[in-house]
Fold these 2 entries.
Entry 1:
Amino acid sequence: MELCRSLGLLTGSLALVTILIALSTDFWFVAMGPTFSSHSGLWPEKSNSEVPGYIRATQSLSILAALSALVSVIFLILSYVPSLSIRGYGPLSSSIMAFAAAIFAVVAMAVYTSERWNQPRHPQIQTFFSWSFYLGWVSAVLCLCTGSLSLHAHCSGPQSGYETL
């Protein structure tokens, strides 16, 4: 149980860091032409222009994923302090929040991927996804790992019953 809980805390912390880095950087999409290169992220610099709906959806779902991952990590940290958590239920709560974070992250990344993939191409401009985009996908995988490890820690830990009273 201790190993799974510790690994869950590690992967949860990494998931939180990667989703926060992905959210805060603007290297989601790169365009390179013969005489220029440009990159964009989830937070457009032009405040007077209309932001597409898929960007808003990706922003919102990514923020929800980051918040869920944060709560998952907090539950795992609290599970190490017996006086602050209900015996055995810290990893279960963490698992639920980690799986919720994974769902939010996967949907956010799928929305962004499908919309960017279907945009029209220009013959002289090469476009591709960049490292911030890939960090978003990595955070979704790490959230799934956190949920799995936390759930395993909960299932292999002591169960509540008359023996614990």
Entry 2:
Amino acid sequence: MGTLREDLLRPSSQTPAPVSVDLRHVVVVGMALWALGLVVTGVLTLTGRAEWSAVAVCGTGLALGVLALAWTRRHPDA
């Protein structure tokens, strides 16, 4: 191991193996965060502190999460 500059210019030929990750867990955590955002922005919108577009963004994120979850079930080895 040399300096950072040397390591960046001449990386080692030994690269670490990729880490196996269950994408379903990642998608579910993301969906939970979008759902939390949907609740928070919904409350803020109903109290007049936010616009409906924020609710739409969170709803879209949650809908994309559902599609991603369906994709992970069709491609479990990806």
